[in-house]
Design brief:
Layout lengths: L5 E10 L3 E2 L2 E2 H11 L4 E6 L2 E2 L7 E2 L10 E8 L1 H14 L4 E8 L13
Antiparallel strand pairs: 1-7, 1-8, 2-3, 4-7, 5-6
Length: 116
């Protein structure tokens, strides 16, 4: 699959404890993105954060949280991300969703003849 240089980054901030049809929301979102053949998705788990409630979520040992921040990042063309947004809206109860234009510098395997 070829990804154009000008693409869109969809970033979704949710809590680790959020669910969608009984499974973790972050997992459901990534599986749906894969099913729809979006170019790529990554989930990042944050050790510390807070959202609209201003309640701190942390991974510190003395204060274990069951709802750590999760960030889902998906990159693809504007058209494919735009088509994904209504589906995403039906999956997410609360969270923050952002979009930004990005430039794709590389997508896919590295060339074998690369020095070093």
């Amino acid at each position: 699959m070829q990804l154009p240089k000008d693409a869109v980054l969809l970033r979704i901030f949710v809590g680790e404890g959020e669910k969608c049809h009984g499974k973790p929301l972050y997992e459901a979102v990534v599986m749906k993105a894969r099913e729809l053949h979006l170019a790529g998705a990554t989930v990042l788990r944050g050790p510390l954060g807070y959202g609209h409630s201003s309640r701190i979520h942390t991974a510190k040992i003395l204060r274990l949280s069951e709802d750590l921040p999760m960030v889902i990042e998906i990159v693809d063309t504007q058209d494919k991300i735009d088509a994904f947004l209504p589906i995403l809206d039906g999956m997410i109860g609360s969270g923050l969703v952002t979009l930004e234009k990005v430039q794709v510098l590389r997508y896919g395997p590295q060339r074998e003849d690369r020095p070093g």
